[in-house]
């Protein structure tokens, strides 16, 4: 759903001239594109200029943009890495999606080995090695590795050491004084590890001495008219620059963390939460907070932590804050009890966490200065709307809602949909589709019963498995149970859901989203009575969005199955038409009528077709 507070011209004027990532949403709030920019204001403005043309795909994307948001970063590299993380997390329709994680290069120091090496890799593993990156240039990364190996005399061979020490003669690098030949026992392990420590200091950013030496050599070579050698030194300096550039968007310990920072001005505050999952920043939230006159940063953050994590469905292992809050030990114990595993509050003052905290604070200050009123209104439509629903139903809190719907045509290809809203926003990564297995014909009650049984038995099984493995409940949408089930219908659908939950010994409240004769939402059916809702309230608008989304998701799935069935009936049953020819025909024709209007010769002229297959298609389409 598009935000009524989003006025394109105003939002474009607010864009800062700094690096960052921009996130485009369509009218249903779905993320359709994620991009990076050296200058957010210049890049995002380009999309909305009539003279700017980036091709048909981008034009189609721009036509669907309902609103956008952005995250500022400290460098172009950070924007690139954050863009990559967000694309993998949300898989936007108009982004080019990679099939695996082999995206950017890393430098790996194999500290798990007795005689470590410095390697070029594209995948980070939990293997005891130390990783640097990701970097934007594979060529520069290779040059950096080559430089480190030569400067610090690091071995480049893949021999197993110390097992194979002395079995072979040293390689050419030893005689070129680029390696001290640990493979031949020419250097002790202790002395070799000193070389490794020099390499680590260099990769950690202590590049000043080497850069100055290379700069002097480059200038000397240029004065001596040895431009080829000067170019080599120049390229090495560029490689060092790529290596030395810091980035904060990916860590290598694969921890789950929340980074929290606040910007406060008078009675208004914005709290930014950066979500780090499995070592990658995958998103952020900005939340408006009302501040009393006597409250400072410490009090605001303490109250925020207690309120935010009281209902959030997932609590990470670490929560990082810029200042120490009240009773840290008591808060840690409370959070640990909710999570089921130990939770730690951290107060980083230096290092990667502190730099990421500074970035969160920078974003919070920017939002406070530009969008405080809009954030408050948006929070009213999301978190505030959830609060209204909880109050209407007499529940302590509602953070996660699941809605279900059934779709079919006269019992054909019956499907079910499960949509999830958390904190008042659609959580599309947790949506699920069900193709009915046990129900034949148009029986909505039996269909809903099957969907709910499958959903919750699956979730209970996953919970048991995770508990046995002593793992967090974060591996699937089914492991998170909702605070309330919202059924698309009244008394009948509610009673079916309540019956399933009783049989599974689950205590989850159920409400029905009741519609009037014009198919418009009119109220909620809860505890055997219908509760009217103020149609102008944010809670009512949220219920309507939830119900519409469940219906849309079920209908779209059913349409895709119908389309597949229709394609099958026309093409897959024709002798001689396999997958390749079927694709060729589908690419060439928009519908069956258009295909049937063609002659055998026209069909035979299509790539991959021949006279016999074309005749088979023509005969099949004209058999009646």
Notes on the protein architecture:
The longest helix is centred in the C-terminal third of the chain and has 35 residues, at 538-572. 45% of the residues lie in helices and 18% in strands. The chain has helices spanning 8-14, 40-47, 56-64, 76-90, 138-152, 172-175, 189-203, 208-223, 227-244, 297-311, 328-339, 352-381, 383-393, 444-468, 491-503, 538-572, 579-588, 592-596, 600-604, 611-621, and strands spanning 20-25, 31-37, 67-72, 106-109, 118-121, 130-132, 257-265, 268-277, 280-290, 318-320, 344-346, 400-409, 412-422, 425-426, 432-435, 484-487, 510-515, 521-526, 529-532. It contains 20 helices and 19 strands. The relative contact order is 0.06. The protein has 624 residues and is α+β, with helices and mostly antiparallel strands. Helix 5 (138-152) packs across helix 9. The strands form 4 sheets. Strands 12, 13, 14, 15, 16, 17, 18 and 19 form an 8-stranded mixed beta sheet that branches. A 5-stranded mixed beta sheet has the order 9-8-7-10-11. A 3-stranded antiparallel beta sheet has the order 2-1-3. It starts with 7 loop residues before the first helix and ends with a helix. The model is unreliable at 98-102 (pLDDT under 50).
- Classify the helix fraction into a percent range: 40-55%
Q: What is the overall number of helices?
A: 20
What structural category do the secondary elements indicate?
Answer: alpha+beta
Radius of gyration: 30 Å
Average pLDDT confidence is: 81
Termini separation comes to: 47 Å
């Amino acid at each position: 759903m598009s935000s009524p507070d989003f006025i394109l011209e105003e939002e474009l004027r607010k864009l800062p001239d700094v690096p960052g990532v921009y996130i485009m949403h369509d009218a249903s709030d779905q993320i359709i594109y994620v991009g990076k920019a050296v200058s957010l204001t210049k890049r995002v403005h380009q999309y909305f200029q009539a003279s700017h043309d980036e091709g048909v795909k981008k034009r189609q994307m721009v036509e669907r943009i309902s609103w956008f948001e952005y995250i500022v970063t400290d460098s172009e590299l950070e924007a690139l890495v954050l863009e990559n993380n967000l694309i993998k997390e949300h898989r936007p329709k108009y982004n080019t999606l990679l099939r695996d994680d082999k995206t950017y290069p890393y430098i790996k120091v194999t500290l798990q080995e007795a005689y470590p090496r410095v390697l070029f890799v594209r995948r980070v593993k939990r293997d005891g090695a130390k990783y640097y990156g990701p970097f934007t240039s594979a060529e520069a990364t290779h040059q950096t590795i080559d430089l480190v190996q030569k400067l610090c005399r690091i071995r480049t061979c893949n021999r197993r050491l110390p097992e194979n020490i002395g079995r072979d003669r040293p390689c050419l690098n030893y005689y070129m004084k680029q390696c001290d030949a640990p493979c031949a026992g020419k250097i002790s392990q202790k002395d070799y590890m000193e070389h490794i420590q020099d390499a680590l200091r260099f990769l950690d950013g202590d590049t000043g001495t080497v850069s100055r030496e290379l700069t002097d050599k480059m200038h000397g070579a240029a004065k001596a008219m040895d431009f080829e050698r000067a170019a080599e030194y120049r390229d090495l300096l560029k490689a060092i620059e790529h290596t030395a550039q810091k980035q904060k968007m990916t860590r290598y310990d694969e921890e789950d963390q929340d980074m929290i920072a606040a910007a406060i001005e008078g009675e208004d505050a914005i709290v930014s939460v950066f979500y780090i999952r499995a070592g990658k920043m995958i998103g952020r939230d900005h939340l408006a907070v009302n501040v009393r006159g006597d409250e400072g940063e410490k009090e605001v953050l303490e109250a925020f932590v207690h309120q935010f994590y009281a209902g959030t469905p997932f609590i990470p292992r670490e929560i990082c804050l810029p200042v120490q809050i009240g009773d840290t030990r008591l808060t840690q114990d409370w959070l640990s009890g909710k999570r089921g595993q130990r939770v730690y509050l951290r107060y980083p003052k230096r290092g990667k966490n502190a730099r990421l905290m500074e970035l969160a604070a920078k974003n919070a200050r920017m939002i406070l200065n530009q969008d405080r009123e809009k954030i408050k209104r948006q929070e009213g439509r999301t978190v505030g709307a959830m609060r209204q629903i909880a109050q209407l139903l007499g529940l302590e809190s509602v953070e996660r809602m699941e809605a279900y719907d059934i779709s079919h045509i006269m019992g054909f290809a019956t499907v079910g949909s499960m949509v999830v809203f958390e904190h008042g926003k659609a959580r599309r990564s947790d949506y699920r589709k069900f193709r009915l297995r046990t129900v034949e014909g148009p029986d909505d009650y039996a269909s809903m019963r099957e969907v709910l049984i499958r959903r919750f038995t699956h979730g209970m099984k996953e919970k048991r498995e995770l508990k046995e493995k002593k793992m967090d409940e974060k591996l699937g949408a089914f492991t998170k149970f909702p605070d309330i089930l919202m059924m698309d219908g009244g008394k009948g659908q509610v009673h079916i859901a309540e019956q399933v939950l009783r049989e599974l010994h689950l205590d989850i409240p159920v409400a029905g989203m009741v519609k009037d004769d014009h198919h418009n939402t009119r109220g909620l059916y809860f505890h055997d009575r219908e509760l009217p809702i103020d149609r102008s309230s944010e809670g009512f608008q949220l219920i309507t969005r939830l119900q519409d989304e469940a219906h849309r998701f079920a209908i779209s799935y059913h349409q895709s199955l119908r389309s597949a069935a229709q394609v099958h009936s026309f093409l897959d049953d024709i002798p001689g038409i396999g997958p390749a020819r079927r694709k060729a025909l589908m690419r060439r024709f928009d519908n069956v009528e258009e295909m049937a209007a063609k002659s055998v010769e026209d069909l035979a002229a299509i790539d991959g077709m021949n006279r016999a297959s074309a005749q088979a298609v023509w005969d099949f389409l004209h058999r009646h």
